[in-house]
Amino acid sequence: MDIRDFMKENFVILDGGMGTLLQEAGLKPGELPERWNVTHPETVTAIHKAYFDAGSNVVLSNTFGANGLKYDDAELEQIISAALANAKKAREESDKGGNNSNIEGYATQGFGDEHSSRARTKFVALDIGPLGKLLKPYGDYEFEDAVAMYAKTVRFGAAAGADLIFIETMNDSYDTKAALLAAKENSDLPIFVSNAYGSDGKLMTGASPAAMVAMLEGMHADAIGANCSLGPDQLTGVVEEYLAYASVPVLLKPNAGLPRTEAGRTVYDVFPPDFSASVARLMEKGVRIAGGCCGTTPAYIRALREKADKLKPVPVVRKELSLVSSYTHVVEFGQTPVLIGERINPTGKKRFKQALRENDIDFILGEGLKQQDAGAHVLDVNVGLPEIDEPEMLEKVVKELQSVSDLPLQLDTTDVAAMEAGLRAYNGKAMVNSVNGKEEVMEVIFPLVAKYGGLVVALTLDEDGIPDSAEKRVAIAGKIIRYAGKYGIEKKDLIFDPLAMAISADSKSALAALKAVHEIRHGLHANTSLGVSNVSFGLPERDIITSTFFAMCLEEGLSAAIMNPFSREMMNVYYAYRALHNLDENCMDFIGYAQTLPAKIAETAGGVRIVKEGNERSRGYEPMRTVQEYGLKNAIIRGLKDKTGRITKEMLREYLPLEIIQTEVIPALNVVGERYEQKKVYLPQLLMAADAAKAAFEEIKAAMSKGGATAGGAPDTETSDADNKKSSGSEGQNSSVPVRCPIVIATVRGDIHDIGKNIVKLILENYGFKVVDLGKDVPEQAIVDEVVRLHAPLVGLSALMTTTVPSMEAAIKLLREKAPWAKVCVGGAVLTQEYADSIGADKYVRDAMDTVRYAEEIDAALK
Amino acid sequence: MADDRKSGDRKGGHVETIMEDIGSDSPTVPRYIEYDEPPLKLSELLRYSGLPADRALAIASGKLTEPEIIAKVNKVVLISRGTLVCKTGYMVSPLGWDAEGFPVLPLEQHSETLKKNLKGCSRAVLFAATIGAGFDRLIRRYERTEMDTALFLQGYGAERAESLANTFNNEVKEAAELLGYKAHPRFSPGFGDLQLAVQKEFLGLLDAGRRMGITLSESCLMAPSKSVTAIIGLERK
Fold this sequence. Notes:
The complex is a heterodimer.
Chain A: H1 3-9, E1 12-13, H2 19-24, H3 36-39, H4 41-54, E2 58-60, H5 73-96, H6 113-119, E3 123-128, H7 143-159, E4 164-170, H8 173-186, E5 191-195, H9 209-218, E6 223-227, H10 236-245, E7 250-253, E8 259-262, E9 265-268, H11 272-285, E10 289-290, H12 298-309, E11 322-325, E12 330-333, E13 338-344, H13 350-357, H14 361-374, E14 378-381, H15 390-404, E15 409-412, H16 416-425, E16 431-436, H17 439-452, E17 455-459, H18 470-485, E18 494-497, H19 509-522, E19 527-531, H20 542-556, E20 560-563, H21 568-580, H22 588-595, H23 625-629, H24 632-637, H25 641-651, H26 657-677, H27 683-707, E21 742-747, H28 755-766, E22 770-773, H29 780-790, E23 794-798, H30 805-818, E24 823-827, H31 833-838, E25 843-844, H32 848-862
Parallel strand pairs in A: 1-10, 2-3, 3-4, 4-5, 5-6, 6-7, 7-10, 13-14, 13-20, 14-15, 15-16, 16-17, 17-18, 18-19, 19-20, 21-22, 21-23, 23-24, 24-25
Antiparallel strand pairs in A: 8-9, 11-12
Chain B: H1 15-22, E1 31-34, H2 42-48, H3 53-60, H4 67-80, E2 87-94, E3 96-97, E4 103-104, H5 112-117, E5 121-130, H6 133-145, H7 147-178, E6 181-183, H8 199-205, H9 208-212, E7 215-216, E8 222-223, E9 227-236
Helix pairs in contact in B: 1-7, 2-3, 2-7, 4-7, 6-7
């Protein structure tokens, strides 16, 4: 029988703890428990049988740590196949009846359960625990390596005849995704997924239960829930959140409370009667699959079985929730309006195109973070340019963005390979932008959504283009819903964009979109999203039209807008609408927003943070006289980043960018650099000044990529897409700083802490060097490849630990061979002059300024 | 959290629980304590952020005025709100001595410096402390956009982790005193000749991966990076 059929009508009782029972049977501390499948099969089988006899429907094979990191392939296969053979043998023996369990204390003692357990439906599950590696970027393990490692365990387990796969005790959402993906790609077995929550009700890496529900259901796990960590009572909140969000059966496998030592033995503080009563209470609330984790024994399972037999399973209710998730939280559509930030998009943005071409990921991240600060709930991510490798870029940007921002992402691409790369790398359930009524598009996108999960933006156009009438757009929406159904994608995972067209071209177009929004929301009961700014295309003062249209759409039931969160008018509408619609309790959000409004509205575009700005926020716009009072140079020296940005912007109205750099920025940097070398200021002040200078350079770059290198280029006219008609004269050229030689920097293989290298990068850039940062834990070959590619005259290597200096030495050796022209400077906590000499470096640099001075020497020698 | 049952007690938060474990004659099962945030030591934060010790002290005591630096500190404290957790996990083990005079612990090692540190001890407390993975995410975010803020965050995180380790260490000291032991200064893997490689076994003993979210890289560095492991030797007075 397939457990998916069995669990439709029945509770599923799982087993209890394995580890402590093995220890009591003689497993030594430090001994790998999975090896006992081979060396002590009778012990393992007896424990499984004791659980079956006590009332379990499912036992988990003794394979929690059976993975390719701990065992070579041959042993792994042997262990897994022995483990499943043990579990199946236990099932056979339990089916036959008779009590030959020789494990002291677990022999069944009457209660008639030996009889009833014979008739019970039983399954053996392949148990999969976490690899124990933290994935990049916080750890050093690649996501795809984790998928491959789990895949081995899955393949061996499926071949050995498991009835289902039980992924458990996962405390990181990304790792969970890797395991689930491996299970899906390497078997057709039912998959249960269970996470380990902390006392704060979150996973170690921050995911809420709702976020896990969204991601795991999106990927079609068959049952989901929580195990380990805590006792049943402490997990109540977590379980209730699962029950509120999940449309699949919810499982619970808690510990027997908390452990302590008593006379050299580990004991737990919740005993079978209380344990089973607590779990049964949660089964009455809707839990359908239950067992025990650490500290539980067959006695716990027997007590639980007795309680369960007296209960009727609560039906699993499908929830009509439209959710997307990040690695921390969900965003729900259909309640309060959702703002999708549109700024990560090169269309009509020269500075953004330049960043894409130069692989300037930091700029893109900055655009994302600014939108988050401005109040966006979801970030649209479009990195398509004809001349770049979009799948590679989208995957990279997704990984980078989710490492700095906890907002869910909307992947925006027409390139199917890019969409798949992005969805695969995404840590959560993403928005997919987009499909439309064309079958050729649905045929390629829906299978990706069925595999990776997603909330799909569906444009109401088809082979015949965009219909004029609302009725026809609604009809296309209906067709898309039916087509999605074929792939198991439900209406709740579709969000329709009925397409706002420019009223300057067709004066009836806004009305058509409004009507379509109304019909889809109230007729089809589906969610809608609009790129609202299109409506004002071709008109002056576009924000007035756009924001008024936004308000009208919200009134018709619009669920989400793809919009510019830096637009004051749009944010006004958003906060006012929520307050007026009783979506903002006591108007608290509106009041909070109102406090962030500057006295004079001077800047809304170009990346000014609207909320959560630092302590200079309330000062708002500063008039020109501040330039004379403080001066740019002084602001940089004092490390006042926000002020530096504002003054630069002001100065750009009157001065040439190069003039500003030569007379203010560089002299300021020189002052700070010299004071640092004289030990008058220290690293914090050096960095504060460098960051401030970076803000000045950023303003200058933005102005130059728009208006060329002339004074008076209006720095803040870039407010929306598709209206940038200026010439591309200066595009792609970063001439704001006197350009010096390229420098490749990296933290060497094995080293994962890179603050020192990042500091060096920032300072070098301020001094005009083109720095290519390869990151941390970089293999020797990758360093050499980049140096050769750029014919870079200088390489900077950093190492934090004595154990990684050999990698540094290896890198230098390879550089000498393949890039003999390149000079190598080294730095980092453990290095000294002698050490640097002994590994053959050209120069030991003791800090960032020292590196600058050496780089200046090299650069001068080239000229 | 979980093991916080004695928190209403007059003797420190968890002193009685720790005493119970020190009293055990066999290695104890790891226990986990979640603390409130310890008070901030500004001078330490500044020192870990790259200021020399004398400057850091002068600024912290108000003798030297550096408004820009204080503004940065305020900023990092503000943006860190809600991301910090303060978790510790520990076990207590009897401590024997082998024929060559090296300490025998559940941890395999052959360290001269540790031997010196533990001289005279008959018990050892092995513990780990972490301020959680959220803090590394925060640092990463600022490393990419505001390097100076990232530097102060690093300093703040290091100060938090050390202060947390001190908080736990002080409770161990108190528990030890009450039982007639003297606590030796704590000793971390990586100090002296105690190789970082012992981290694997160390964290395994505490089940720190599963219970505290502490994992190791190939080169035995901990993630979350703001984590501390250490051994505290207890000597009978």
